[in-house]
Specification:
Elements: H1 7-18, H2 33-45, H3 51-67
Length: about 80
Amino acid sequence: MVNMDDPQDVAAHFYATMLGYTISTEPPPPDSNLAKIQEMVRRCEAGDITEQERDDAVGRLMRAEMERIPPEARNF
């Protein structure tokens, strides 16, 4: 539910809608890149991996996600 008293919440929901996404409070699907990023953060906070390893893994996931966007849509 959108908190209409929070401009940041309203903006996030607006832009998500414009981009065809849905903001959810449910956990992401386990095979999604978001779940993988959350796992890297959890492992780093637990001391299982270094910050550099976390950053490298997150960077790889983000680059892989960017590859899914058609080149003509990458105007940012």
